From TrEMBL:
Keyword annotations of the record: ATP-binding, Kinase, Nucleotide-binding, Transferase
Family of the protein in this entry: Belongs to the guanylate kinase family.
Known EC number: 2.7.4.8
Primary gene name: LOC108564536
GO molecular function annotation: kinase activity
PROSITE patterns recorded: GUANYLATE_KINASE_1, GUANYLATE_KINASE_2
Alphabetical list of PANTHER family matching this protein: GUANYLATE KINASE, GUANYLATE KINASE-RELATED
Superkingdom classification of source: Eukaryota
Protein name, entry field: guanylate kinase
Boundaries of every Guanylate kinase-like domain copy: 4-186
Pfam family, one: Guanylate_kin
Residues forming coiled coils: none
Amino acid sequence: MIGSRPIVMCGPSGSGKSTLLTRLMTDHPEKFGFCISHTTRKPRVGEENGVHYHFIEKSAMVDAIKNGEFIENATFGGNLYGTSKAAIETVFKNGKVCILDIEMQGVKQVKQSDLKPHYIFINPPSIEVLKERLLARNTETEESLKLRLSHAEEEIEYGIVPGNFDIIIVNDDLDSAYARLNAFINEKVLEGSSRY
Ligand SMILES: Nc1ncnc2c1ncn2[C@@H]1O[C@H](COP(=O)(O)OP(=O)(O)OP(=O)(O)O)[C@@H](O)[C@H]1O
């Protein structure tokens, strides 16, 4: 695959990945393309197939994974999520830098592949702030909140290990975090040795 190296964004649920990515893509719609994941979970209100996710039946996704069609996959809250090779290829074909928003299990699998992306970890200022933001987002039940927070500790532990990510961005103040993200991308992704 010829093109700029993709970007992998990882961080606990609620750390601000979507917020930062939406801003990045709005500011530079011509440069970046979001890799659309597959999931076996049901669409939420307002979610469109092929836009937010490719929604797929569990048996079909299990078969596709067995067929080697996925670069990474993970189970979260009883549902399968994954990145297909075709979804990455679609972004490459449009001449854009491919962005993957994936979680820790996925990152570990991508590291075994030949994708060679830039790895960015979005860290919340603290678990307490993470909890406050998830509560304010108003998307979680008591149970899913607990699950996300327990995963968060594990993800942060992995995220801060030197060498696991190319950059760790603490999302304290949103404007500063975005400025750090932009600086990294401008220096390493858009101007750096991004061809392979
Ligand atoms: N720096 C910040 N300061 C205050 N609030 C923030 C900041 N960054 C994000 N938020 C808010 O925190 C909440 C979580 O952010 P967001 O949905 O972007 O997280 P996420 O990492 O994409 O989560 P998920 O993995 O569950 O999709 C949102 O309501 C968002 O508006």
